[in-house]
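Example 5.3 — Putative oxidoreductase
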Amino acid sequence: MFENRTVLITGAAAGLGAAAAEAFAAKGATLILSDRSDKVMGVAERLGATGLIADAASLDDHKMQVAKAVEQTGHLDITINNAGIAHPPMRIEQTPEQVARMVVEVDLLGMMWALQTQIPQMQKQALERDGDGGCILNVASIAGLVGASTLGIYGAAKHGVVGLTKAAAIENARRGIRVNAICPGFTRTAMTGDLINMAPDAEAAEADMVRGVPMRRLGEQAEIVSAMLFAASPENSFMTGQTIALDGGVTAY
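Solution (predicted structure tokens):
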């Protein structure tokens, strides 16, 4: 499905990023994997990919990733902008300035820098390849679609990601670039595990986390990655500007 396609995945050292890397590799993609953790190098080595140490909050690092993809393969066809951070549950008035600034810099401005560096390369490709510029998939969150109590600044940043996604989709709809976002609910990843384990009673914390989910469970990584493959597929050529909720039915209320 993704043969001869260069796929850049950020935040690929673990969790959804690493799971996505495995799935795209299995479908024949050429991978460029980045993360601020050096664990990404192990993931890259295992999958025969290129690994890069990069900070999602750095505009220069985003420029470097695009340049490396083009240097190695000549093109950048699909980007999965997955890198992001969360913060421990806390009310808005309790959120320290440093925490708020870090979340915005990584989750929102980091997405801005990703789009700002990826779009020009894809616009160039569209001119060279009869309108086939590429596909961008941003990983937002259900917190970008609904109110997220005790995750206020994280939710605000993810709402911003949804806004950037829609704006980028409109701006590039006639330039051969599709831009979409997925919005996972709580999914069984290390980040979610950390939130659960911060509580005095982890079992009770997980039960509380899924209390408002009609399916009454966490999402599984494979379920989220399946949606990534669908959204990024070259055959899915008429979908752009969409935010796909993968939330066990939360937004059906």
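Remark. The chain has eight helices and seven strands.
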